[in-house]
Design goal:
three-stranded antiparallel beta sheet
Length: 182
């Protein structure tokens, strides 16, 4: 299944600059990550547009529209006062990128930088609730936003010390034992 759509014009200056800015701001690995988000956004907007063409009393529009809006609010893309299909059409790429786990870890101060956040996630130091997540593009729901934390067996959390810390402790212990003998 296709997850991203390459741009129609590969060398459009404004788009290239805008993409580079987004890659830097959100610590993305490559531009395909932006295109993936844009593709998801395009699909959401397409659904919203087709639903808006239907009659407001149409059962399909009522049922599917409510489901779409519920999903949008669950992921924090729409505020409670914006729950209408028209607002789905006004969503931006930035709004979707803000909901990524990588961005959330950085914004909550668990990581020193957006790139550090990505590394922490990939190295399995971050959990959401009780579930360990190692996908930086994981979309965080508003309900689980407060439960982002270091995983239980991570050296940053309550886990045992990491490799470097163990090595330093061993060398300190060796140095201490050397001093006692003299």
């Amino acid at each position: 299944r296709k997850t991203a759509k390459t741009p129609r014009r590969p060398y459009e200056k404004e788009r290239l600059d805008a993409e580079l800015k987004l890659v830097g701001e959100y610590g993305l690995r490559c531009k395909r990550e932006i295109w993936r988000v844009q593709y998801a956004l395009a699909k959401l907007r397409k659904v919203a547009r087709t639903l808006l063409t239907l009659d407001p009393k149409d059962p399909k529009r009522i049922f599917e529209g409510a489901a779409l809006l519920r999903r949008m609010s669950r992921y924090g893309l729409l505020a409670d006062d914006e729950l209408e299909l028209d607002f789905v059409l006004q969503l931006t790429t930035q709004k979707l990128l803000e909901r990524r786990l990588q961005t959330k870890v950085y914004k909550q101060g668990l990581a020193k930088s957006i790139h550090h956040a990505r590394v922490l996630i990939r190295q399995r130091h971050i959990r959401v609730g009780s579930q360990l997540v190692n996908v930086p593009s994981f979309n965080v729901r508003t309900s689980s936003e407060k439960h982002i934390d270091f995983s239980t067996n991570s050296p940053y959390g309550q886990g045992p010390p990491g490799r470097v810390a163990r090595k330093r402790a061993a060398s300190r212990a060796a140095a201490g034992a050397g001093d006692e003998e003299e």
